[in-house]
Design brief:
With 287 residues, this protein is mostly beta strands. It has 4 helices and 21 strands.
Length: 287
Amino acid sequence: MSFSKNMRCVPSEKAMVASGFLFLLLAPTVLPLSAQESAPKATEIRRIAAPEANQGVASDSRYVYAIADNEIGKYDKTTGKLIAHWEGDISVFIHMNSCSSVMGELVCAMSNFPGIPMASSVEWFSTAGKITHLRSHSFGPGRGSLTWIDWHNGSWWACFANYDGKGGEPSRDHTATVLVQFNKDFVEQGAWLFPKKVLESFGHMSASGGRWGKDGLLYVTGHDLPEMYLLHLPKSGARLEYVRTIGLPTNGQAFDWDFGRPDRMWSIERKSDEVVESRLPTLGQIH
């Protein structure tokens, strides 16, 4: 397989170790959960340059989609070539946080971050050929800023983030971040807070990405740290339960599974404007 010049080689192991050491030196106040336990790590495979890779990434069978506040870039998985680009009115499309491919459409979580009161909506796009906005569902103000939404087992699962500082409301901090289950018509079915251990790792920010896995676990990323948290619904109570942590080659933000390849995932590296494909640890390593 030949790759385009958009793709660059995986960094050497020496460079990756040095980078991780530098990260720990620069951020001594937050010890990653992956450093507190023997965490399996995702293995980086390749990178594709994508100027829109600022908030998150989505994947379907042939393309990856780099997400910015009011932009979406559609890239061919094999060649890394830009296929289509969409840009919305920034006064309307203020802050798209993440997207996922659901039933042939791109479903995106959007908020008015850092505006208050916090308000959120879901935006749908067609990706057949060019990218076209289709419709919207507004949640309005209430629980926080919608950072990600996933369709799983006949329900929508939406994360409403809260923050300690910029973009937060005085009555709530990041510990008020909540996962809400809705039916197909967005009627609420249940809601859960996040584990205290994971909230500590979020720092002053919140959950930037989330997807249900085929193993029935919920995989969540924060805003900054290079790690992913595995959670599950509790048998009782209103707080999600922590399972363990996976180390990542990229720092936080929204991610997506590779459509059709359950052992692969896509994430972003904001500082270099890249979408990154990685191989997940085996199930035996995770559990």
